[in-house]
Amino acid sequence: MSSTDEVLVSLRRVIRATDLHSKYLAKTTGLTAPQILLLQTIRDKGQVTIGELANEISLSQATVTTILDRLEKRNLVYRERSEQDKRKVHAYLTDTGVETLQAAPTPLQEHFTRQFGDLQNWEQTMIIASLQSVAQL
Question: Which end of the chain, N or C, is more open, meaning fewer C-beta atoms within 10 Å of its C-beta?
Answer without folding.
Answer: C
